[in-house]
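Hello forum,

I keep getting stuck at the same step: I have a sequence, I want structure tokens, and every attempt I make locally crashes halfway through. Rather than fight my setup again tonight, could one of you with a working pipeline run this one for me? It's a single chain of 479 residues.
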Amino acid sequence: MSNGMTKLNELTIEEAARRLRARECSVRELWDACAEEAQKRNPELRAYLEIFPADDEAIAAAQKRIDAEGERAPLLCGIPLAIKDNILIEGKIASASSKMLENYRATYDASVVKKLKEAGALFIGRTNMDEFAMGSSTEHSAFGATKNPIDTERVPGGSSGGSAAAVAAHLAIAALGSDTGGSIRQPAALTGIVGLKPTYGAVSRSGLIAMGSSLDQIGPLAKSVADARILHEAIRGKDELDSTTIPDGLYPKREIPKTLRIGVPRHLLREGVDPDVLVAFEATLAKLKEAGHAVVDVELPASAHALAAYYIIMPAEVSTNLARLDGMRYGRAARGDTLLDDYIKSRTEGFGEETRRRILLGTFVLSSGYIDAYYRKADAARAVLRREYDKAFESCDVIAFPTTPSPAFKFGEKSDPLSMYLEDIFTVTANLTGMPAISVPMNTVNRDGKELPVGIHFTAPHQAEDVLFTVGNTVEKSL
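Reply #2:
Ran it on my machine without issues. Output:
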């Protein structure tokens, strides 16, 4: 039976795996603890769009495997996880929080889900998100916004806000999200947990409902850096169903030095960042110095243009990826008097305002008169960014920013799309360059008498996730 002061649903993957192997709790008890908390708190938080009924067969199989294999059983065996609503689980609805796919039921497992099932993981439910992953607050879900468990008057971030809220509120042990421009790291920062965007191609996108195909990556949201690592190790690897996945060793291996050099582009932090967020950032850097690491200044002049390049490339890919959702081939099918009416009604009823805005913007930047003026220039800027980061990594091991310019904002506070887009200012570069990045909690700031979490963000060279886990562990220990 369970013991200790910590409730079972509040455990990390590491702690839960240890207790399961020590027979201090059963897989069923762990599942029930998470499912009961999810049922109790979800009506208020709306982290889940659907909480799945217990799969008695899978729970029994996980318990049997732990009993038989003990320490050799995968660490994720019997661990209840939350899955973002744009990642396919066979037989379950995957709506991407959109009316367009409200009734779409997945006919196969995403590659990451297949890997998690093979490891014996269990799925609590599918989590709320911004429609088709377009947003930074989960306010753009067609089924209502998720609330931040730290302060329910505030957003949890987005687009993986439901996954972040589920982990932060202990409605699951850990979760998967997807990250196109910061959609794992930003909600992790705003809810006080760890979020990792892996190297582009490290994790298969097969079975992920596509938003921006050259930017999207599936990654973990977890209660600790160690848990993020466990989940990442379980889902990564080359996949014949995704030609963009990369083999191990594609990029030169970087040794992890005992003393890390942390590059800080202070020239990008002079404006737009809340003063108390900067104070927390500098205090975290000071703790890293105390731990023996070096902080060095780096120059990233092209990064000032990263957000502009991102908001041209991403909508262009959105308009291409969502073209198939036309009322004929997939998704909602509304009927009018003519074929054109069918298309117009289906897409107008099926897509929300933000999705329509990005489709229109993307179609515009790809149109014959404007592709050279906008899209090709943005693509060229992306190549410059990659070279600039590669050069910076000659003098440092990771590059540090605050994850977000401010803590979680109140609902409706950023109704102007441009102010919402600025939420991604420090996170989009990792998606444009394809480099891995992590957000780790770095203390809190006070707003209206509430202590709100903020995160520190580290970017590393391609396939150097181990460096991120090392620096993340150091920050975690210093809190």
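The mean pLDDT is 95. If your local run keeps crashing, start a new thread with the error log.
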